[in-house]
Amino acid sequence: MNTNIQINKLKAMADELKRFMLVYKFALDEVNTKISILKEEFQFIHDYNPIEHTSSRLKSPESILGKIVRKNMEPTLPAIKESMRDIAGIRITCSFRSDIYRIKEMLCNQKDIELVECKDYIENPKKNGYQSLHLIVKVPVFMSDREEKVYVEIQIRTIAMDFWASLEHKIYYKYDNVVPERLTAELKEAALAATELDRKMEALHQEVKELKSDDENKLMEFHLEEKHFNIPMKLIEMVGEGINDKDKLKK
Ligand code: 0O2
Prior knowledge:
With 251 residues, the protein is an alpha+beta fold. It is 63% helix and 18% strand. The chain has a domain at 2-160: Beta Polymerase, domain 2.
């Protein structure tokens, strides 16, 4: 084959691959925006932020290739698009276990997010102790000439679960997947300790929440007592007058 034709063919392939990956980047941008909105709105309404940290990544071409070989997948873009559902991945870290399910509900209640699969490794931890909630969702990405539904993997876990998973990942990497039995046993123990820590932190959090809500109720009662009521009433009247003046100005 003529060298120029070969070069052009390779260029076309590279462009096709770039366009293929770009769609996943857009999908990540969309879900990340959704998460930011939830975070900000939740903070505003509840004076509390359930999301500690988020990170996202696109699978590298090397890992895509490795997975094609490992899973014996058909090496075509349409086949990869359908069977490799973690090319775009987002990890959300929360403080408390209950936040995980709250975030899942908030995301999955959105009309344009389709929940395709949910693996609950919190209710059913992996044998090694791994805990996390994994969602595979499909989100629409609108481009100049078409709309594509794109798979995104969302992993949601607590800080303790995340700490454990990253250490375990490092250990497996260091030992090239052949980890001494003593270490796997200790990792299992550490996973149990992480679960216990999550349980204790959640209980404390609930207690503080109840105390805070009691205090807020007391404060409300105090403000509603008659002797204090005239101040806000005056304020309300003044604000009301201000609004009327504005209306007059408009006319
Ligand atoms: P990376 O680089 O993190 O993406 P799949 O390979 O996804 O088709 P699987 O194993 O059924 O099949 O998917 P699952 O159970 O949803 O897990 C996928 C991802 O979860 C992994 O991605 C890890 O990120 C994480 N994970 C799952 N099990 C473990 C575990 O035992 N320890 C740790 N540390 N992480 C885990 P990848 O593709 O391995 O890598």
